[in-house]
Amino acid sequence: MMHFQKVKLLNNLQDYIIGRVAEKSLFFYTFVLLMFNSDMMKRFFYSLLLTLVTIPAIADEGMWLPVLIQQRIVDMQENGFKLTAEDLYSVNQASLKDAIVHFNGGCTGEIISDQGLLITNHHCGYSAIQSHSSLEHDYLKDGFWAMSLDEELPNKGLWVAFLVRMEDVTDKVLAGYNESMTEAQRDSIVKSNSATLINKAKAEGKSYKASVESMYYGNQYFLFIYQVYNDVRLVGAPPSSIGKFGGDTDNWMWPRHTGDFSLFRVYADKNNDPAEYSKDNVPYKPKRHFTISSKGVKEGDFTLVYGFPGRTQEYLYSDAVKYISDISNPHKINLRTLRLDAQKKYMDQDRKVRIQYSSKNASVSNSWKKWQGEMGGIIKLDAYEKKVAFEKEFAQWAADKPEYNTLLDSFKEIYTALEPYSFARDYYNESIRVNEIISFASSLMTAKKREIDAAPIIENFFKNYYQPIDYESFIALLSEYDKNVPADFKPQYYKDNIAKFGSPKAWVDYIFENSALLTPESAQSLFASDSLEADPACQFSSEMAKYNSQEVLSVIRDYESQLQLLYRAYMRGQMEFCEDKVFYPDANSTLRIAYGKIRGYSPADGVYYKPSSTIEGIMQKDNPEIFDYDIPQALRDIYASKDYGKWVSDAEGSVPVCFIATNHTSGGNSGSPVIDAEGRLIGINFDRVWEGTMSDVIYDADICRNISLDIRYALFIIDRLGGASHLIDEMTIE
Ligand code: ARG
Ligand code: GLU
Description:
Blueprint: H1 3-21, H2 26-36, H3 39-50, H4 73-78, H5 85-88, E1 100-103, E2 107-111, E3 117-120, H6 122-131, H7 139-142, E4 144-145, E5 153-154, E6 160-168, H8 170-173, H9 183-202, E7 208-215, E8 220-229, E9 232-237, H10 240-243, H11 247-250, E10 262-268, E11 282-283, E12 291-292, E13 302-307, H12 318-347, H13 351-380, H14 383-398, H15 407-432, H16 436-449, H17 455-463, H18 467-484, H19 492-501, H20 504-514, H21 520-528, H22 536-577, E14 592-597, E15 601-604, E16 607-609, E17 612-614, H23 615-621, H24 633-641, E18 656-661, E19 673-675, E20 681-688, E21 706-710, H25 711-721, H26 725-730, E22 732-733
Parallel strand pairs: 12-22
Antiparallel strand pairs: 1-2, 1-6, 2-3, 3-10, 4-9, 5-9, 6-8, 7-8, 9-10, 10-11, 13-14, 13-19, 15-16, 17-18, 18-21, 19-20, 20-21
The structure holds arginine (ARG) and glutamic acid.
Glutamic acid binds at residues 107, 665-670, 686-688.
């Protein structure tokens, strides 16, 4: 492990974070200090947690496959759930799964009326909202409410997928495989059997898509069949000062006051089938839509999140966890800090640039901040030490089992060899490929190869491009690459050029002075010529990409295939070793159920966070001077008049805004329905608390919380601020 780098970086990062945030939040500050200076805490937790290593999965932790939810239903019911497994997932009758969609691949959404009305997060609809925004009608800033179906806005490329069904196809996928085969042979059998299953499934219905997904590292395979609708129109969005209230400062944090929702509508043809956009399309009639509860929530209530978590790695070998917390995250955070600084500088100066970069900036900053929480959480929880302790026990148990007794040594060996390659890949991804002009060059070269029209790519690129940001950020990133990537992992092309130009800055200057990709016109004519590949930006892009794919990724792929094999056995081994524990498969963007309770938490000694927030907190944070906290005047007026309509929480005497619970969620769960014991919609999941973002690697029921928007706040905003009560009339509210 590259320890020397760790220490230095952590110190800088600590200064950086503290400097940036001290003005804003004392709690954040406290946690940062705790997170980095926690030797005593560490020792204490270590001894405490060692005892917890092998306890069975308790309620709270876990993302369960809906088709197998029968296995959890008793536990769920003991925790307060009133419905049956069939109510959640059924292929014979309409069930709650029919009201849930995978929203454009990265988020979740749910249907809340019999007219195909859909709710998801504001940040999930963000690029759709942005694409309809301009300086003249800035829906990001002012919000948007369609007052009739005619006013709903179509979104090219936006799709939602309903899960038709899922089934265990392990036997079919592995047909023809036997244990004596190599991993490569196995892969090819899996691929071809899967392709057969997928093709058959796709033929079952209109606009069906299917995939075969591996669970538990290939110990099990499931077929997922979806129906895809791609006429999805924007219906409503609050102003960003509500939908993104608190911006990146509050992101990943509790207490939270973000109204993170937006409304869309799914359209279908006259037969209710999926169809390309047409003005003759009509609102989709769902098999099932959510009933909304306006009763409210309180600490201890049962909650369930039903959605599409993207990726977790709960069963990693210890060294892999250490790589995340000690090397990968610190470096990636540092690189993103540099990009964010360049963006922020110009976004603050110019409203147009702010709009252009709002979506890019939010996504860069989102992982930037998550990685900080994750790394802090891993360290604070002693995840590495816990894993090591578990591995020790496992090794003892496995000593006389030939199937398992060499696993851990093999892990060690492979991870040691893999680490410098992972490091090089991380740098390629975060410091080379991300430079806008470089990724633009790459998409033009791809378009040329595939003989695709470049005009839309060029138009799209320049719509949201501000050269000074890219230029400054490129210099900063390339300088870090130069400093931190070992010579053995730099391409000869790189070494030659850095020698020729003398410094990363001089090289970047050269690219920006000589590339023809910097205006739409010159890019277009370069594309039409025969010399696209000779452009300095294109050359940089293709040479660096070539090295990454041939010298780095190919090696990584090889190691990963060996790891896959090891993990498959390790997974089985863990299941045998911890007989009483029920294992859930890692998230892989398939539909999952997570259940738990509404619960506050204690982020630090002497501090307890209540599980819900109200509009009072919005008023406390309101500050016209700070962009992220400058709420619409209309909301101030409503607050002053206390004219909340019917959206007041009896318990709080105020308008509820967000709540937290112990549901185990991940990226991709954004927009997921949060339901109560009766299956009614009580909230929309949109985030996790910062101290708990290590739950992708290790979950801790004491500190891991998902953050949801209280559905009553969405209704309040639609009704009182948006004046769109016709939408509320469409919903079923109890
Ligand atoms: N952290 C949430 C998620 O991972 C919300 C991100 C959007 N909000 C933001 N301020 N960038 O997607
Ligand atoms: N905001 C995340 C998303 O877009 C959800 C938060 C999380 O990672 O849990 O999916």
